[in-house]
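Could you help me review a protein record that somebody else here produced? Here is the record exactly as it was handed to me:
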Amino acid sequence: MLAYTELKKGALFVYEGDPYEVIESNFLRMQQRKAVVQTKIRNLVTGKILDRNWQASDSFEEAEVERQTAVFLYANRGEYWFH
């Protein structure tokens, strides 16, 4: 499990059932308020980028992601083939 302070650039975690990667991270502490981590995260399935704020009560499951190099072969009728 990852704490909200461990969400640094490049960290991979699961949020709402999808794997996400942290693109930007900023720790913010304002007077008379709780500390917050502001992040910009990318969904690894859809590529969508979200801005989210996390508090101390938030914790995350670490994502198990395997990266491999692939060569694009061709596309045909909405199907994409890689090697």
